[in-house]
Every structure is written in C-alpha cells, then in structure tokens.
Amino acid sequence: MNAEDLINGFYEKSRVVQLRWQQEFEINLLDGKKTICVDLDGVLCDYVGTWIRFLRKKGVQAEYEQSVYHTLDLSQHLLDSSKYTDLKHMFREEGEKRSAIVYRDAKEFLVFFKNKMTVVIVSARPNRKYHRIFPDTVEWMKNNGLYFDAASAK
Q1: SS3 state at 135
Q2: Which of 2, 15, 35, 72 is the most exposed place for a label (fewest CB within 10 A)?
Q3: CA-to-CA distance for 51 and 30, rounded, in angstroms?
Q4: CA distance 121 to 99
Q5: pLDDT tens, position by position, 6-30
Q6: Any bridge partners for residue 150, and if so which?
Q7: Element (H, E) at 21
C-alpha cells in the first residue's frame, strides 16, 4: 500500500461513514412516505455478465447465455468448477463490483421513483465478510448516476 492508496482508502471510508450517518439520522422510513426496496444483482446490475467478464480476464472459460442462468450459483457453468471458491473470493476482493455492468434502464428506473418514494437499495452481498463490497457498491452506484436514498447489505 502506498500513500495514495492510504489517502483514497481514508476518503472512501469517510464517504461510507457519511452515508451510514445520513441513513441512520436523516432518513425516516416511518415518515409515511412510501418506500421501494430495489435489489442490485439481476435488477440494476448484470451480475452474471460481470462474473463472466471477470472469469475471462482470469483466463477461465465459461459459457454465457443469459437465458440459461436461473440461479446466482454459477459454479455449474464453469468448465473447471474446482476453482470456483477461489475465483469467487478474488472476484470480491479485487473490487470487480466497482466496475459491474449496469443495466441500460437502471438509471431511469430509479429516477422514476425519486420524488415518489424513498429508494432503498438492498442486497445479499456479503459485506461483513468482504469489507470492500459496500464501498465498492456505493462507488459503483455513484459512478453510474444511480439514485438511492439508503442502502443496506447482508
């Protein structure tokens, strides 16, 4: 880690702390305003396409035909599934979610609800095990202009 990485990490952590503060003290989900909860993977983000792109960067062959994926357990689609756990760990640790493929209409979908409801992003992404997932997700949302009022993860 160099000085620039340390500084960037500090500011990233500060953004996450600020977001959590706003969610805790400034957003009242009981104020009578309707709330919509929106999942990330498969709704706003092409999780499967992002995963396949990552595998290809790592030199792993995997077939990709979106219509055949009915679950997020993608191990059965790898030609060599013995490396699945290690690859999944690298996928999460290397920040691939920061550059995930955003669905074409995701931005417009969220903007539609902006003034009508409180928009809460929910996810089962394992942010307690992989501490960078929440900041990576927030950065991804910001970089893609995806509106939300609050975010929650598993």
Answers
A1: helix
A2: 2
A3: 37
A4: 18
A5: 777 766 766 766 666 565 656 666 6
A6: 120
A7: helix 3-25
